[in-house]
Amino acid sequence: MSPCEKALTTATASSALPQGAPQLQYYVTELTAPLAWIDVAGQCTDRFAEGTLRNAQSKTVVSLLADKYGQAAPEVTPARLDGVTSMTISASALDAMALAEDRAGFALEVLAAQGQTAGATLELSDMHKAAAQQLVSLADSASQSSKSRIDPRQKVYAIDNLLANPVAIADKASGQNVPTAAAIEMDCARAEIEAVTGTPSKPDTDTSMILAALAAKHAYTAMQIGYPSSDIALFE
Known about the structure:
By secondary structure, the protein is mainly alpha-helical. About 60% of the residues lie in helices and about 5% in strands. The radius of gyration is 18 Å and the shape is globular.
């Protein structure tokens, strides 16, 4: 099998136990699924989006089962690119990701100040802004003309709809009303996925896996604060 086929087989096997299998066995096998789906995102050129979102989805399943069995759920870890110094992807793709991070950071900062939005914190806002700075630096390194580059971050964005709906908001992607902070996190994840999948020259495996993990962390955060984790919400 090709590396993609191997990764996909491992990932799908984690959630494909025979009907009637004990739920504890399902939990144990599901523990391997999140990393397996990141492998899919890295190894399979046309499955970056699927691998990224299924990583977050499988983490959510593990979180629910861990609570049932008194185990520690997967942590919501910092969504940054600490230690990453270069990437084999276009500067324009990195710029698009930086813009998504900066926009999410601004929205969360404003909503945190309003104090009505569950999950909107200054810590989460700062994390997005830190990731945006890292992506801009990586884009500068990837660009052939970094001296003449324009910073993609706008710093201030129109968020009238968010301010009008600080608790819950209509999510265009899923067609459902979702917690507002969850919508911000998932919009950021989807924008980053689109930036990677839309670039003409595909990144190498390591770059794909790093960027998939970044976007997946946003998606998992969204699910932890109320975004639906069903296939219909994520993939339809």
